[in-house]
Amino acid sequence: MRVRVLSDQNPSGAHPMHGIRFLERLSLALVLTIGCSQVGAQSINQLTDLNTGPNGSEFGSLGTEAVFFDGRHVFAATDRVHGLELWVTDGTAPNTRMLVDLCPGQCSGNPNNLYVEGSNLFFAGDDGKTGSELWRLPAGSDVPVQVSDLNAGAEGSSPARFSRISFVVNSSVVTRTFFTATRNDVGRELWRLNAGGSPTATLEFDINPGGGSSSIGKFGVANSQAAFTAAPDGSTREFLLLNYSTTTAVPTSITSVGGFGLSSQRRLTEELLTLGAKSYLLVSDSATLDSELYASDGTTAGTVRLFTADQITQLTLQVTLNRVFGAARNGSATSLLVSDGTTGGTSVIGTAGIAPSAMVPLSNRLFFFANSASNGRELFSSDGTTAGTGLFKDLVAGGGAVATVIGRRSSNGLRAYFGFGDQLWITDGTVANTIEVSGSAISGSGGLIAAILPTTGQSALIGFANQAFTAGEPFFTSGTAVSTVALGNLASEVGDSFPTPISVDNGRLIFVASVQNQTSNGRSMPILGGTIESLGSFSGSQSGVHFGKRWLRASSGATLTNGLPSGTTSLTGFNGELFDPDCIIERGGLVHFIATASGGASAYEIWQSDGTQAGTLPVTSLSTTENSVLSICASNFRTLVGLGDAIYFVGALSSASGLELLKLSGQNQVSQVAEIRSGSTSADIRDMMALNNRFVFTANDGIFGNELWASDGTGQGTERLTDISPGSTGSNITLLARIGQRIVFSARNSTLGNELYVTDGTVSGTTLVRDLFVGSGSGLGTSLPVRTVSDNELYFVGLSSSEPNCRLFRTNGTIAGTRCAYDSGALNLGPIMRLASTSQGALVFASKRPGSSEGEELHVMFQGQLVNLPGLDLNPGAAGSMPGDLLAAGASVVFTADNGTSGTELFRLDLPDLALIFKSGFE
After folding, report:
1. Do 163 and 176 form a contact (C-beta atoms < 8 A)?
2. Contact 178/201 with Cβ under 8 angstroms?
3. Sorting pLDDT into bands at 50, 70 and 90, what band is 496?
4. Angstrom distance (rounded) from CA 523 to CA 508
5. Terminus of the chain with fewer CB atoms < 10 Å: N or C?
6. According to CATH, what is the number of the domain 574-720?
7. CA-to-CA distance for 415 and 427, rounded, in angstroms?
8. 3-class DSSP state for residue 503?
9. Is 596 helix (H, G, I), strand (E, B) or coil?
10. Which helix (H) or strand (E) holds 690?
């Protein structure tokens, strides 16, 4: 194989790739290894090196969570090689490293909800196989262990909101760790973490019985009992107490605390703060548009409304003062709110309209940023009285502007950090010890402090974005300027253009890319390499071809192109939903789509176009009344479909009807097809796809939840096809994909989990394809890709209880035709997230082979065999080239990758005739 750079707009920035001469004959030797075929005719070419300077956009940043555990600072961070994973540092750059690649390769382990208890760091993480589940990192180890696969299968339970609280049961003090998690048979509910010994997790209480979720908010203590907010009916959140019979038992019941006047218009938010004997909660009233602050002692009689405003936010406890503070907005003025838990002791204090933010309790005061008359936005403090509320220190002399501020208290509670712009300040509550600790690496650079994550003592991790980047690189500080140092460059500045291939039209590749000092990011080039030409500014990786040109969404209109600058035109004056080919419907020689006129306050309508500026205009006028058209149409959210000479879309004929299924006739008359959900609540219609003489879609009628429906365009011919998950919860139908004259989709119920179904548009023809993960475990996740291989077959990523090593499956819509795509006993593949199928039926995907020294690279599969082609390891070593955005073009695949020298750029893989090679090799 010979590898060559086909185009380099800056030869001085080019880097040679490792080359191997390849044979251009079909009389090739076929060498079979275990589950693999070795083929020697293949070519990878680098198509572009558009950006040889700094990154076009940033890839990599400090995450939003950090803790101090086992003598080191543990945090979440993203880099270009591994995605979002766990990292550790001792506060120095040489000792900052990734701790574990939980999901091998560029796929993210996505560690979140970091929580330390005993000798374990608990967190939610995704290994790329079981979904987001509960993991622990034992002290003295770098190897995380999964505590439990709470929601068996590929979907994950997404543990969150770990909270350790103490309360009283039968006169005994009980301390317990609660968290929330999802299991298919109970929904998202209340769980208990048993952290001692060999940690386990158990279901504590099914608040909303059955498969429905209870929308759990925050935890606290009221009337010496464990308290929290949740919705027992799955809809209206209430203030609840857990009732235990013994200190070791699970709750026997829950008690709802009244006094809030809750209804469909009056709802509790997730806020719940406990201070002494009282809990503070917020009620949002959609009828009056008010926000109300309540205090409760855990009884209905002891629940009192303290204050009402247009909006109340930022509730913050000041334990020393025994006060709760917040920001109360009335009209355009936002003031400081303080309460001692009584109506008489609740009021706004200080100067009206100071717009407090970044509140941090410290010592016997509250510190925050606010507007002052002469000094601009500066650091204030309050002791809970008007006289004791005012400017604390002028940090930016001369009334300098301070915009977004981040405020955090140190983990030992003795200091407060404030960050704004490129300034980091720390205070112990005295003016003399309120000092800037930005350090030379941050101060004066003109960047932005994006995150402050306290860890231990007064140490913290700082996410700082300088002028060249958009996300925060990691810095460390222990509270002094000299200790504020950079920990590394997660963005790895190597001159990426971060291209996105869109399509191949007329033998030319159309793509977008980021190049410094150039406003036009749309380009095209011959698919075999050559001159790169600018096509203007547009976006999106999905599009459709109409009137012989590809339609691409632009900032105000659409770009129409045949791949050549001379064949590129623009339509302006509208903002269109043009992301998905199915969101542009052809009818009567015209295309129709959802759009709104740009530059004004007009609502969305159905537009039509003949490809000219004069012929592009709206054909509905629903916005002239109280009616409306749903403004969203995109992949897996299709709200537009054509059938016969009619177009069907989602809209409302009146505010009383809600968003329903509407019809645009051939004469552009609008009518309602059916009222799927009575009343003003939206039926949540989406994923509309034509099928034979009907179209299918998902909808929620308010009785059966989200299920699959079909319609022939009449009210009588509109019917619900499924009740996969009985009850109002619905089956969360997603990932609709066509397979011949049928559609496969993902759906969930409490017995089978999330599995693959198929429909021909009729009730009798809608069935389960296969229970891939037997039992309540899920064979499919909620956001995994499904890619078309041919008209009658699909590949998809899933998890099987009978073949646990299989990551990739194929289906023709029958149980017999749904199986592992390869011999999972012989091959061990890592997570597969990006797929493309060539015209000859070869499947090309990105994966990291577990147990190998290679990173994430391209792999080729043909007829169930992994074809071992030389040269696919573009970036030898553990880093890998991280192929992405795979676009099939005949027997070739265009993709993005980082070969380790030129950054993330465009490459092309050319495959030989594998069918002929396999035939010659086997026969």
Report:
1. no
2. no
3. confident
4. 10
5. C
6. 2.130.10.120
7. 6
8. strand
9. strand
10. strand 686-691
CB of 838 within 8 A of CB of 888?
Answer: yes
Q: For residues 401 and 525, give the distance between their C-alpha atoms in angstroms, rounded to a whole number.
A: 46
Cα–Cα distance, 626 to 724 (Å, whole number): 35
Helix (H) or strand (E) holding 315: strand 311-318
Kindly tell me if the per-residue pLDDT of 29 is higher than 50.
no
The answer to whether the CB of 194 falls within 8 A of the CB of 200 is yes
Q: Is 764 within 8 Å of 817 (Cβ atoms)?
A: no
Rounded to whole angstroms, the Cα distance separating 762 from 779 reads: 24
Q: What pLDDT, on the 0 to 100 scale, is given for residue 83?
A: 86
Angle ∠(465,468,471) on CA atoms, nearest 5: 35
Q: What is the token pair recorded at 693? A: 């003489």
Exposed e or buried b for every residue in 896-917, given b needs 16+ CB within 10 A?
Answer: bbbbbbbbbbbbbbbbbebeeb
Asked whether 459 and 476 are in contact (CB, 8 A), the reply is: yes
Domain ranges of the chain: 1-33+51-59+493-531+831-923, 574-720, 735-827
- Look at phi and psi of residue 795 and say left if phi exceeds 0, alpha if psi is from -120 to 50, else beta: beta
pTM to 2 decimal places: 0.86
Q: Among candidates 920, 831, 848, 846, which has minimal Cα distance to 887? A: 846
Which amino acid makes up residue 237? Answer: R
Contact 610, 592 (CB under 8 A): no
* 714: CB partners within 8 A, 6+ apart: 673
**pLDDT at site 302:** 96
State the sign of the Cα–Cα–Cα–Cα dihedral 423, 428, 434, 438: negative
When the pLDDT of each residue in the chain is averaged and rounded to a whole number, the result is 88
Hey, what are 255's tokens? 């008690």
